[in-house]
Design brief:
The chain is an alpha+beta fold. It has helices spanning 48-65, 108-115, 124-127, 136-146, 150-155, 164-172, 185-188, 203-209, 249-256, 315-325, 333-338, 378-404, 421-431, 443-456, 462-468, 483-496, and strands spanning 4-10, 14-20, 26-33, 45-46, 73-80, 86-89, 99-100, 159-162, 182-183, 194-195, 200-201, 218-219, 229-230, 242-248, 265-269, 273-280, 291-296, 304-311, 348-350, 368-370, 411-414, 435-438, 471-475.
């Protein structure tokens, strides 16, 4: 009998493989970073061949860590950084260009041009999204316009588009030797090219963005009773295993947190911050700057939708302190440094490095540090960095409450930053509700495992998955309301200083 399900969690800064048992506990894991490439201000790229190499390495690492072999595995699931865009040649397997990452802002002129007729929200009712550089469709169009010969190959079906899930499934199932070209509705709903109701590519959106349909993958359920394909004997698993679960990383975390009922929400603290609220079987269109997205679709069942608040820069700001300023040598040091001061000293850090996402959606915003005096030291920098994450989360929660009418009684949290005690306590103080971390904090990988395991009967139902969830730690909000009143008001003031920094010609 199979003991584990394997989950590949391909994120913005690293790739991880984890093996989970029936109790939802991790039995083995391996993780490796990949390079962040910044060719120009606002441009963010990855090397897709490096990502595939790291994927193969972490699969082997996780199997070794668990003292397991492919014979111990029931299935393979994938969670991935969403919106991140790649096009490759199906005959050679070679990418036409680097991966364009979700944070990249090079498509701002395209988005502005499309918004001239009907405004930024002209497609919201169809695709659930505002016109923004965040999404895949504009990135595909930029590649078609910028890479010589690509459009011709795309029209002939030689050039294949995919988000990272599609790239990994294609390689795992054979690549140039018959690799399967698929995605799921959670990823497809982030392209601006999928009709939210029909869960299929929208011909009108393809025409508006001038994208050939021949380059797009087939959209399959997030948990597929009929596997997308099987891993190859000559691949990293060295055996034929069903690949039958795909979820965009934030939707995977929602599944991993067992948010299966309307009104349940989670917030993931990673490179960015992403709060999802399950809204049930009908999409809810936001009037307060949130995204309408597919939460998951299990085989034979209707799609479940979510409202999402997406924040571009949270954990990435800690990484920036480490790599660009050298204030810390490792990410965990930010908490130690922040604890050297009692408060932020009046300093507020608005990390609009890639513009502002929810609830503002202003591509022309840029990062601002406000309230600095001679009193400020590096401890205040660290404290303001952590507080920025908490304030941005509060903005999203306020918008979510306004759209849904649901007042959350507690917030489930996961991701790398939830081990930062100072941040989690301040988050509870700013929100005024308890913040709860599960025992298994790596819920993104767990959600991908759940999707694959459900498809093959490793788990029988969502009730079984919900029973696996257990509280790890809870932070109660302080009785002192200063953080959620005066401090938050100052933050809102600082945010306005970041607006309209980039001029109309796109120059910084």
């Amino acid at each position: 009998m199979s003991r584990f399900v394997a989950a590949i969690d391909q994120g913005t800064t690293s790739t991880r493989c984890m093996l989970f048992d029936r109790a939802g506990s991790a039995a083995g894991t391996d993780q490796r970073e990949h390079r962040q490439i910044y060719p120009q201000p606002g441009w963010v790229e990855h090397d897709p061949l490096e990502i595939w190499q790291r994927t193969q390495e972490v699969v082997q690492g996780a199997l070794t860590a668990a003292s397991a072999s492919a014979g111990d595995l029931a299935a393979v699931g994938i969670a991935n950084q969403r919106e991140t865009t790649l096009v490759w040649n199906k005959h050679t397997g070679q990418p036409y260009y680097n991966v364009i990452v979700w944070q990249d802002t090079r498509t701002d002129a395209l988005c502005s041009a499309w918004a001239e007729q009907g405004g930024q929200d002209r497609f919201r009712t169809r695709v659930g999204l505002p016109l923004a550089t965040y999404f895949s469709g504009p990135k595909i169009r930029w590649l078609l316009d910028s890479v010589e010969g690509l459009r011709e190959d795309a029209e002939r079906g030689v050039a294949l588009f995919g988000t990272i899930d599609t790239w990994l499934v294609w390689n795992l199932t054979g690549g140039t030797g018959g690799g399967v070209h698929v995605t799921d509705p959670t990823n497809a709903s982030r392209t601006m090219l999928m009709d939210l109701q029909r869960l299929d590519w929208d011909d009108e959106m393809l025409a508006i963005m001038d994208i050939p349909g021949a380059m797009l993958p087939e959209i399959c359920p997030s948990s597929a009773n009929e596997p997308y394909g099987f891993t190859r004997d000559d691949g990293p698993f060295a055996a034929a295993l069903p690949v039958c679960g795909i979820l965009g990383d934030q939707q995977a975390a929602t599944v991993g947190q067992a948010c299966f009922a309307p009104g349940e929400a989670k917030n993931t603290y990673g490179t960015g911050c992403f709060m999802l609220l399950n809204t049930g079987a009908e999409p809810v269109h936001s009037e307060h700057g949130l995204l309408t997205t597919v939460c998951y679709q299990f085989a034979g069942e209707p799609a479940v939708y979510a409202l999402e608040g997406s924040i571009a820069i949270t954990g990435a700001l800690v990484q920036w302190l480490r790599d660009n300023l050298g204030l810390i040598a490792s990410a965990p040091e930010v908490e130690v440094l922040a604890q050297t001061v009692e408060d932020n000293g009046g300093m507020y850090f608005v990390p609009a490095f890639s513009g502002l996402y929810a609830p503002y959606w202003q591509d022309d915003a840029r990062g601002v540090i406000a309230g600095m005096t001679r009193y400020i030291n590096k401890g205040h920098f660290a404290r303001a960095t952590l507080e920025a994450t908490a304030y941005q989360t509060r903005e999203v929660l306020d918008a979510m409450r306004a759209d849904s009418g649901v007042a959350l009684k507690a917030l489930k949290v996961d991701g790398g930053m939830v081990h930062n005690e100072l941040l989690m306590q301040f988050q509870a103080d700013v929100l005024g509700v308890p913040v709860i971390r599960p025992q298994v904090a790596e819920t993104t990988a767990l959600g991908a495992a759940y999707a694959a395991g459900l498809a093959v009967g490793f788990w029988q139902s969502t009730d079984e998955m919900r029973a696996n969830w257990a509280e790890g730690k809870r932070w109660q909000p302080s009785a002192d309301d200063t953080a959620r009143t005066r401090y938050y008001a100052q933050w809102k003031k600082a945010v306005t200083r970041s607006f309209a920094w980039v001029e109309g010609d796109g120059e910084e």
